[in-house]
Amino acid sequence: MDSDVRLTGKEELRRALRERRTQVPEEAQRTAAASLSGHVLSWLAATSAGESSGTVAAYLSGPPEPGTGELLPALRKAGYDVVVPVCEPQYQLSWVRWEPGVELAKSPRAPLLEPVGRRFRFTELGTIQLVVVPGLAMDAAGNRLGQGGGYYDRFLAQLHAEHPAAPAIGYLYDEEVLPKGSFGATVLDMPLPGAFTPSGYRSAL
Ligand SMILES: Nc1nc2c(c(=O)[nH]1)N(C=O)[C@@H](CNc1ccc(C(=O)N[C@@H](CCC(=O)O)C(=O)O)cc1)CN2
Ligand SMILES: Nc1ncnc2c1ncn2[C@@H]1O[C@H](COP(=O)(O)OP(=O)(O)OP(=O)(O)O)[C@@H](O)[C@H]1O
């Protein structure tokens, strides 16, 4: 993970970041996923004053994303309801409850697996303690570079309008927290307050 990422156009930057993720050795992937999971659980324990209830909206990672395979069962074990996104038409997300062993099916809209089961709008989920947001990078101002669908920008705009207090935090490798201005942001981009990384929670400026 020590190769430089050239700071050029968004598409080229996405390609370089995806490529760098594919270079992370398996052992380092496992260690990173375990650290990330631990930081999310510690953050939740610290912010919810020991009350492990409510919903965490996370996602099912696919290679080469930082793994959530350890995080999701740890969240359930700690007492949270866990939901993961399903891609709907017009780049909307709905949410399905995740449990260990839940049946998965290939999304018709994205190269991803999604749980089979009842779909909820986020407004039906009760208290959202945390949204764990996927992405390829965050800059120091909290701007997020995602996969390019705009699913999370739309969702986070709706979430912010209805539940302004619900925290939405990135889930990245350390090297993906980039200097401010590393990529262009528009008014539609929803800045994050910070990101979980294997070394800990990294707050945006
Ligand atoms: N694990 C994970 N789940 C996630 C996301 C993510 O980043 N990671 N998403 C974060 O947003 C959403 C899906 N994001 C997507 C972003 C772009 C495209 C995309 O480029 N689709 C192409 C067709 C791709 C194909 O079928 O090969 C397109 O719409 O033209 C698809 C999904 C919801 N679930
Ligand atoms: N709130 C919104 N309403 C309508 N269109 C939006 C909104 N947010 C983003 N878009 C559009 O979605 C497209 C993709 O946006 P962008 O490149 O920022 O995606 P991304 O954040 O990388 O992707 P994702 O959120 O899926 O990870 C752009 O055309 C953008 O204009």
TrEMBL record:
Keywords: ATP-binding, Ligase, Magnesium, Metal-binding, Nucleotide-binding. ATP binds at K10, E11, E12, L13, R14, R144, L145, G146, Q147, G148, G149, G150, Y151, Y152. This is 5-formyltetrahydrofolate cyclo-ligase. Pfam families: 5-FTHF_cyc-lig. Its EC number is 6.3.3.2. Belongs to the 5-formyltetrahydrofolate cyclo-ligase family. The keyword Cytoplasm does not apply.
